[in-house]
Design a protein that fits this description.
Blueprint (H helix, E strand, L loop, with lengths): L5 H52 L3 E6 L7 H12 L8 E5 L6 E6 L1 H4 L10 H6 E6 L10 H17 L7 E3 L15 H14 L1
Parallel strand pairs: 1-4, 1-5, 2-4
Antiparallel strand pairs: 2-3
Bound molecules: zinc ion (ZN).
Length: about 200
């Protein structure tokens, strides 16, 4: 019967009310913290995803070069470009070997610039370096013809890149079509290269 005294009831009531007030106060704070954390996570994820998508899908051109020298592999030209030009890597994304410097004819090497989808340093046109994929063949095609195996390797690479990044063959350009230079040499006929890529894309 003692629990039915009015005083006791009031005490119990006040105590419960305090507890409830505490609960009501702390609940929104926790909710806000969780909500903010989830929101930040979502925003960061969306930005990271968009950044990754853009990094992977921004390519609109492929630019073809020659090294103007008949010797070397990716490591060799990377060292030359780092020491002589002060660049972080070789100027190009892909290099097609000619069998010198312990490589095999037509072998394709990928630079770190490609692995990180970074801009290249291959032309003086900044947006082309950003929106373009730079491919170089070892050799001087101002002096001699392109070896057939190396040419075939170039076509295969161009077809693969054109397909993957949805780049029309007309956007496969020689360095000399962009600025005053002999690169990639008079023996590397870019119109023929574009025609070969068109054929391969049409056949498949
Ligand atoms: Zn060039």
């Amino acid at each position: 019967m003692s629990s039915h005294f009015p005083g006791d009831t009031r005490l119990d009531y006040k105590h419960t009310l305090k507890k409830d007030k505490k609960k009501q106060k702390s609940f929104p704070v926790v909710k806000i913290i969780y909500g903010t954390a989830i929101l930040i996570f979502c925003i960061v994820s969306v930005f990271a995803g968009a950044r990754y998508w853009w990094r992977e899908h921004r390519f609109r051109y492929i630019v073809v070069h020659h090294t103007a020298s008949d010797y070397g592999d990716l490591k060799y030209y990377r060292e030359v470009h780092q020491k002589e030009r002060g660049w972080s890597d070789i100027a190009y994304h892909f290099l097609i070997n000619n069998g010198t410097a312990n490589t095999s004819m037509g072998q394709i090497e990928e630079s770190d610039l490609w692995k990180t989808r970074s801009r290249n340093f291959s032309t003086k046109v900044d947006y082309i370096n950003y929106f373009g994929i730079a491919v170089v063949l070892v050799g001087n095609f101002e002096n001699h013809k392109v070896p057939p195996v190396q040419r075939e390797s170039l076509i295969n690479l161009l077809v693969r890149l054109a397909k993957t990044y949805d780049i029309p063959p007309d956007r496969i350009i020689g360095h000399r079509e962009l600025q005053q230079t002999a690169c990639p040499g008079k023996h590397l006929n870019m119109s023929e290269i574009r025609e070969s890529v068109k054929k391969s894309l049409g056949e498949k």
